[in-house]
Design goal:
Oligomer: single chain
CATH architecture: 3-Layer(aba) Sandwich
Largest sheet: 8 strands, mixed
Distance between the termini: 9 Å
Number of strands: 10
Strand content: 15-25%
Shape: globular
Number of domains: 1
Structural class: alpha/beta
CATH topology: Cytosolic phospholipase A2 catalytic domain
Length: 301
């Protein structure tokens, strides 16, 4: 049985266990992925492979680069707050200017260039190439014209992840490898079909609630209506995908009361999801112990 060790650069090395981790899309709801990663760190294990869509691709890239869950949490808490320096950096990632809107009426001055965004905000630990990651990662994006999902596990990391997170209306589509890419969640919000392992842990942040039949006549604000509609579509698609490719563990963090753009509520999201650590450890340990002995490297004693 292998135990966690320390690399020459001070990072902790965990043995790879026979499971794959799937991190779904869902905007700010996907900050719940950090809590799941912390639970894996507490078990002293890392997956053999990871697949991620949108926010899941971003956090998956950080994790695959060797960052511990606690470090990803600290980085998110530092970046997702209203500070003058953060706002200035965010403004540099815009596609257009307010003057363009007045002159042409065609440019959304708040549209974000996702490649610029990642160049500015990704942690330094994340490499330029997907193949240089410590854990194999498949980034899932949608080919706008071919109308299918594309999985990237080699090549430039930033264009692939940028395409995976390019939510229509908020982030500009990405041209990469002869394709026009938009958010991977449009077709494959929880990409369980992109991994192959004895055990699959899928983290689905689209909707952790059981809806009742209460009628609500509140008219949503325009942005809420836009992103709420996208989430509704993703929920339906996720149900179909998960039915066809059932993961060993289907984890649904309690993020139903948060909105897609609630990134500034990072502390609340993490605090709300912290209790699921015990569930992650319990269910994954049980699954690993049920695997054939020759496949099991298991959690350390």
């Amino acid at each position: 049985m292998q135990h966690a060790g320390t690399l020459s650069d001070g990072r902790t090395h965990y043995p790879a266990a026979p499971f794959a981790l799937v991190l779904g899309g869902g905007g700010a709801k996907g900050l719940a992925h950090i809590v799941v990663i912390e639970a894996l760190d507490e078990l002293g294990l890392r997956p053999q492979q990871i697949a991620g869509t949108s926010i899941g691709a971003i956090i998956g890239a950080c994790y695959s680069a060797g960052m511990a869950g606690r470090d990803i949490r600290a980085y998110a808490l530092d970046m997702l707050q209203v500070r003058p320096d953060i706002l200035r950096r965010l403004l540099t990632t815009r596609v257009g200017r307010f003057a363009d809107l007045i002159r042409t009426g065609l440019t959304n001055p708040m549209l974000i260039d996702p490649e610029k965004f990642l160049h500015v905000f990704l942690p330094p630990a994340v490499p330029l190439l997907l193949e240089d990651l410590m854990i194999p990662l498949t980034v899932v994006a949608t080919d706008y014209y071919a109308r299918l999902d594309i999985g990237y596990s080699e090549g430039l990391l930033i264009p692939a992840v940028a395409g995976s997170m390019a939510i229509p209306g908020a982030l500009r589509p990405v041209v990469h490898g002869g394709r026009v890419l938009i958010d991977g969640g449009i077709i494959n919000p929880v990409p369980v079909d992109k991994v192959s392992a004895p055990i699959v842990l899928a983290v689905d942040v689209l909707d952790g609630s059981s809806h009742d039949s209460m009628i609500d006549e509140t008219v949503p604000a325009p942005w809420d209506a836009l992103f709420g509609s996208v989430m509704l579509m993703m929920q339906v698609l996720s149900g179909v995908k998960l039915e066809a490719h059932r993961p060993t563990i289907h984890l649904r963090p309690p993020v139903e009361h948060f909105r897609v753009l609630d990134f500034l509520k990072v502390k609340d999201i993490l605090a709300t999801c912290d209790p699921i650590k015990d569930e992650v450890k319990r269910r994954l340990t049980r699954a690993l112990e049920s695997s054939p002995a020759e496949l099991l490297e298991g959690p350390p004693d």
